[in-house]
């Protein structure tokens, strides 16, 4: 079974300095039909204006993954990290027992476009952990960038989940096997693809359950995230 979440149907909010689209209920956007999918709790598609950002705020007991599509995002946290996140990099925090952090667009001229993802943790109240890495691009395939066991050099996260980042040229396709009682979410970062026969464009997502394979074909050059979830 596949359930498509169209980009235009997400919760869209314009705060002036921040334009955001919420796949699932978050903050001032609430839809009881979209509270998350399996352990995947948040997929926020954010564009932050130059020189603006999120002030210092707390997190706890959540796995937080950030992917920048364009521009740069400056991160500062209570663990002592101050780093810029740029396109191609993946940032992860196990918030665990609690952290404080801020996120800021340091450019005076260029907006930053990012996805922030929250995954519910496997264990609560763990020691907070930070990772930032630049995985090798996956040409016409998927690269495992985060997983519960740190397989294949991926970021180890405190969750029974695997996150892949992929790229497909127009006309190329890939089959992703799903294990018994596993589920998938596909999020299109840009481009147009078909997922198990359903057409998805930039910003669209899809939940897949009860299938053994996720078949993805690119109608145009595309980038996407694929989550394998318990």
Q: Any key phrases for this structure?
A:
7-stranded mixed β-sheet; 0% helix; 230 residues; mainly beta; Jelly Rolls
Q: Which strand order do you get reading across the main beta sheet?
A: 1-20-17-22-15-13-14
Spatial gap, N to C terminus: 16 Å
Structural class by sheet pairing and helices? mainly beta
CATH-assigned fold name: Jelly Rolls
SSE pattern, N- to C-terminal:
EEEEEEEEEEEEEEEEEEEEEE
Unreliable runs: none
| Rough outline | globular
β-strand number = 22
- Helix content class: under 10%
Largest beta sheet, briefly? 7 strands, mixed
Strand residue content: over 45%
Mean pLDDT: 97
CATH classification class: Mainly Beta
Number of helical segments with 4 or more residues: 0
**Radius of gyration from CA coordinates:** 17 Å
CATH architecture annotation name: Sandwich
Number of domains: 1
CATH superfamily: Jelly Rolls
């Amino acid at each position: 079974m596949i359930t498509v979440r169209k980009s235009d149907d997400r919760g869209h909010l314009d705060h002036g300095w921040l334009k955001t689209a919420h796949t699932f209920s978050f903050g001032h956007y609430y839809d009881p039909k979209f509270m998350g999918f399996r352990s995947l709790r948040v997929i926020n598609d954010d564009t932050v204006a130059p020189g603006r950002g999120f002030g210092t705020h707390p997190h706890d007991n959540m796995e937080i993954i950030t992917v920048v599509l364009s521009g740069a995002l400056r991160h500062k946290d209570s663990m002592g990290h101050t780093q810029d996140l740029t396109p191609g990099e993946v940032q992860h925090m196990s918030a665990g027992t609690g952290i404080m952090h801020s996120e800021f667009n340091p450019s005076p001229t260029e907006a930053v476009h990012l996805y922030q993802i929250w995954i519910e943790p496997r264990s609560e109240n763990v020691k907070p952990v930070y990772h930032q890495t630049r995985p090798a691009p996956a040409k016409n395939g998927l690269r495992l960038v985060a997983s519960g066991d740190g397989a294949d050099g991926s970021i180890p996260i405190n969750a029974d989940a695997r996150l892949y980042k992929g790229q497909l040229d127009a006309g190329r396709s890939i089959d992703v096997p799903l294990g018994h009682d596993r589920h998938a979410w596909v999020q299109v970062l840009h481009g147009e693809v078909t997922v198990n026969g359903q057409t998805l464009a930039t910003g669209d997502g899809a939940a897949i359950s009860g299938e053994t394979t996720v078949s993805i074909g690119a109608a145009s050059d595309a980038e996407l995230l694929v989550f394998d979830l318990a």
